[in-house]
């Protein structure tokens, strides 16, 4: 299911003959580790997913092969869709939290700038 | 049993810096890996544990902590900050006259790397391929800049001076000599901010009397993936929060030496009587506290850059969701 005419494909699905709907390799065009790794992390956190991984087929082509295998007869597009939605929600939440913390900081005066770093536990003795 | 729990906690939450290698690097908390732990993704749990603390913020750099997010997503933000947040930079250089000793292509390369202070959110990408070289590009996707400078001898210099600053006028071409030429309605839109290079003191070329530069430049919108000149950050990086545990007491001269290994103020020494031996130091990194540092080149303030980066990741997800939806309906 590639695009027809001059439309460049953005997302393709490749399925082996005879396999069920649960094992699909998606080809995502114009993507790299940026989306691949973060999406893989979220899809692996899904309980239905048996296997999830991605590869960059060749570094000079900007596309990734993203494979999802599910258990329990779930169609593979379902975890992909859910992972994309979850990533979108994470981004939204990060954005909101960031705006809030910036606003809090701008209301503080003078701005408090502190963090314990690094944390050191233990005893140090010096003989007088 | 307690030892096993402690070990598991350590594997799940800490990266260990050993003497010859780094251990526990990969995230392992996926559902099914650890009995007794429910690692399925839960947005509410994430929202409850997630926190951002801005440590430092000024107009060119910021440092903030993200607590409760995995390195995969933090790395995605870092990669987007470096390569996928769009900016404006000089792309086409029309050289009408260049009699300096800097070659045309070298000069064009140097001009491309100069950061241009223009808010890229107010511009569109230029459609390539449709236009001929003659087409100037419209006001919505192009900024036009001009560099016109001629070096001449200083008539007021003294006879025996050898300092080029005194002998010649305009012998150093700085980025402040690049002037903005508004096209279309840009003069009204950008009347208060003005458009030009971020820094005035970037040396572009050197001239001697009789040499001149007459150059027109077009800036377009692009991303760092295409060319590094479009990258809006000097650098963006992150690290994990270090946690250092001293396993045994240290004293005497060893304690002094240990104190000197760290920056001032990190370790304080106390005066106690006792005996001890050499210490064993373990260094851990807390897996879920990520210290992000963003240094901007000045085009956009760093907090705006982070916001834009998060929006870019959201746009990517939406794009694929749209594709999935449209392909399902076929």
TrEMBL record, chain A:
Residues 23-96 form the DNA-directed RNA polymerase RBP11-like dimerisation domain. GO terms for molecular function: DNA binding; DNA-directed RNA polymerase activity; protein dimerization activity. One of its GO terms (cellular component) is RNA polymerase I complex. InterPro entries: RBP11-like, RBP11-like_dimer, RNA_pol_Rpb11_13-16kDa_CS, RNAP_AC19, Rpo11-like. It is found in: Nucleus. Keywords: DNA-directed RNA polymerase, Nucleus, Transcription. The keyword Methyltransferase does not apply. Pfam families: RNA_pol_L_2. Its main location: nucleus. GO terms for biological process: transcription by RNA polymerase III; transcription elongation by RNA polymerase I. The keyword Acetylation does not apply. Signal peptide: none annotated. Belongs to the archaeal Rpo11/eukaryotic RPB11/RPC19 RNA polymerase subunit family. This is DNA-directed RNA polymerases I and III subunit RPAC2.
TrEMBL record, chain B:
InterPro entries: DNA-dir_RNA_pol_30-40kDasu_CS, DNA-dir_RNA_pol_insert, DNA-dir_RNA_pol_RpoA/D/Rpb3, RBP11-like, RNAP_Rpo3/Rpb3/RPAC1, RNAPI/III_AC40, RNApol_insert_sf, Rpo3/RPB3_RNA_Pol_subunit. The lineage of its organism: Eukaryota, Metazoa, Chordata, Craniata, Vertebrata. GO terms for biological process: DNA-templated transcription. GO terms for molecular function: DNA binding; DNA-directed RNA polymerase activity; protein dimerization activity. This is DNA-directed RNA polymerases I and III subunit RPAC1. The gene is polr1c. CDD domains: RNAP_I_II_AC40 (cd07032). SUPFAM superfamilies: Insert subdomain of RNA polymerase alpha subunit, RBP11-like subunits of RNA polymerase. One of its GO terms (cellular component) is RNA polymerase III complex.
